[in-house]
Amino acid sequence: MAISAGMGRQVVIVLYVMAMAAVIIGVDIAFFRHRIWERLMVNIGLVLVFGAFYLRFLKFP
């Protein structure tokens, strides 16, 4: 069975989102367990970094 290009792209995006979630949860637990506002700011920053990385390197034409 051959995987179509659309299916491969979806797999990459799902893996990317799962990696982003794992990093955010890991940072939350390790550093910002009881600090709500700092955690929110870092989470927003991480999402922006992952978004910029996606647009720069993983965006398919």
Walk me through what this model shows:
By secondary structure, the protein is mainly α. It has one domain. Helices cover 82% and strands 0% of the residues. It has 2 helices and no strands. The protein is elongated, with a radius of gyration of 15 Å. The model has no long low-confidence stretch (mean pLDDT 88).
How helix-rich are the residues, as a percent range?
A: over 70%
Our count of domains comes out at 1
**SS elements, strand count:** 0
- Mean pLDDT comes to 88
Describe the main β-sheet briefly.
Answer: none
The span between the termini is 25 Å
Short description:
The protein is mainly α. The chain has helices spanning 5-31, 36-58.
List keywords for this structure.
single chain, 61 residues, mainly alpha, 2 helices, 0% strand
